[in-house]
Amino acid sequence: MNELHRVFARLIAATGPISIAHYMAESNARYYAARDPLGTDGDFVTAPEISQMFGELIGLWLADIALRAGAAESACYVELGPGRGTLARDALRVMARTGLAPEVHFVETSPALGAIQRAAHPQALWHQDLSTLPEGKPLLIVANEFLDALPVRQLVRTGSGWRERMVGLAGEALVPVAGDQPMEAAVPGGFGPAPEGAILETSPAAATVVREVAARLVAQGGAALFIDYGHAVSQLGSTLQAVRAHRKVDVFACAGEADLTAHVDFAALVPIAQAQGARWLGTALQGAWLQALGIAARAQALARTSPQAEGDIRAAVQRLTAPEEMGTLFMVMGLAAPGWPDGAGF
Ligand code: SAH
User: Between the N and C ends of the chain, which has fewer C-beta atoms within 10 Å?
Assistant: First the structure.
C-alpha cells in the first residue's frame, strides 16, 4: 500500500466514500508531479513521441489556418499539457518555415515535466491554467492527450435509481461503491431507463476547459485542436483505465503510480463550444485526418533524406493511422473563432 493509498484510506474511514473525480484528480496530480511517464522506458507512448511527422502536420495545420485568417503575425502558440515539449518542437519548426514565429505559452501543472519543457523551450511562458493566457491576440491552441487525464465523474444505476459512483473501503482495499444521494437530476435526457449496473461517465473538467478555450477564441480569435482517444457519440459505460509500464492495471490498486485516463466524449463537447459562439470545424478520426493532411507525402520526403530510417518511418505511419492502431481510436476535434476559415482535413 503506497502513501497516497493510505491517505485515501484514512480520509474514507473518517468521512465516508470519495467521488471517482476526487480519486482521479488527486491520483493524477501525484502521478504527473514527480515523473516523466512518456516513452518506452516509462508508462505510455504518445503520438508526438512516435514520430516527428505528427507535430509537423499539426504545425502546418496551425500555420495554414492562421495565414488564411490573416493572423500569422499576431497569433500565439498555446499547448495544454505539452509533455516533453516534443509536439511543440516539431510544430514550431515547420511553422517557422512558413514565416510564423509565435510567442509560446504552455499550460502545465507538473514540476517534473515543466523542467523538461523548460530545457527544450527556454523562450516559452508557463501557466497553471488557462486564466492567465494572453488576451487581445489570437491563440493557436493544441491539446494532445490532455483532456483524457482530467477527472471524470461517474454515475451508476442502482436498484433504487442513479447514484454517484464513489471509492469506498473494503478492509484496506479501495473499491467502487454507490453513493447514497439520488443523482437523477444529473442524468442527461435519454439515459434515464438504463439497466441496473449501467455507468454514465461525464467530464465536468474537460467541459470547463473546452468552454474556456471556446470563449477565448470568440473573444480574441484563433483556432484549437483537441486530440484524444474517445468517441463521437455519447454512450454508457466506464472508460476509466489505469496504465503502468504499457499495461492496464487495476484502477484502484496503485493510486498515484499509474496513469489514469478516460475516453473523451467529443459529442458532448461540441455543443459546449458552440454555445460560447465558437465554430466547430469538425471531429475526424486521427488516421483519416493525418492522411488528409498528407502524412504519406511527408513520410516519403523523410525517407528520401534518411533512407536508413525508411522502415521506422513506415512503421510510425502505420501506428499513427491504421484502424487497428491509433487511427480510429483517436479523434481530432477542431474549433475556431467565428469568421475564421475552415480547417484542413475536416
Ligand atoms: N501532450 C503530451 C503529453 C500528454 S500526457 C504528449 O502528447 O506527449 C498529459 C499532459 O498533461 C502532461 O504534460 C501532464 O503533466 C499534463 N496535465 C495533466 N493534468 C493536467 C492539469 N490538470 N493541468 C495542466 N496540465 C495537466
Answer: N
Report the nearest atom of ligand 1 relative to the CA of 49. 8
Which tens digits make up the pLDDT trace of 49-98? 999 999 999 999 999 999 999 999 999 999 999 999 999 999 999 999 99
* Interval between CA 193 and ligand 1 midpoint (Å): 36
CA distances from 276 to 71, 132, 214, 215 (A): 21, 19, 6, 6
pTM of this structure: 0.97
* Domains of the chain and any CATH numbers: 30-151+205-238+262-336 (3.40.50.12710)
pLDDT of residue 28: 97
How far is the centre of ligand 1, averaged over its atoms, from the C-alpha of 148 (Å)?
9
CB 85 less than 6 A from any atom of ligand 1: no
pLDDT value of position 192 = 66
Quick: pLDDT tens for 79-88: 999 999 999 9
259 ligand 1 Cβ < 6 A: no
d(CA 135, CA 123) in angstroms, rounded, equals 19
CB of 81 closer than 6 angstroms to any ligand 1 atom: yes
CA of 92 to the centre of ligand 1 (A): 19
Q: Is 151 in the pocket of ligand 1 (CB under 6 A)?
A: no
